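Section 3.1: Structural characterization of target chains.
Under the original work plan, the team committed to producing a structural model for every single-chain target entering the pipeline before any wet-lab resources were allocated. The record below documents one such target. The sequence was received from the expression subgroup and is listed exactly as submitted; it comprises 176 residues.
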Amino acid sequence: MTLQPTASRLAGTVAGLALALAGCAGYEYKLNERTVFEGPRPFTDYAIADEALRECVAQAIADQRITRADALEDLNCAHAGIGSVAGLEEFTGLRRVRLDDNALADLAPLHGLRALELLQVRGNRLRSLDTALCRGTPKKIALARNEQLDCATVDRLRACGATIVDLPAHCTAGAR
């Protein structure tokens, strides 16, 4: 009879400890120099050459407690001095990406991001856009202040199902 309450108390204590430790991501707990619990670690296994983009992604991973590449859904790297998005293709779970007011001329690394829903690339150096951006989920794309953008590429994006949120001034109906 005395074993039952002790076993129940022990099970309750272990369950309570497990719940408490589960909320402690990134920590390691040791007992007598042996690891008894190790929380999930932030995702670090990625390669991004552009230093400004690498720093922005690292901050997003830390802020959102991302432990896998496909778990990163939101990325806000506006006004960051980014010249290349190479390396973002690894983050296949990205749904919303804000890259306004950088120095981007090429979005090719984003073509494989099929979950991408919203792409904000206002105020960059884009000259053309590929319809490969239309793959996967229907996209909303913000393009204002890309003064060198070929307006015909915008028409092709619309034709493949993208919704254009805003346009460079020279691509508006009155300017054409």
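The longest strand covers residues 34-38.
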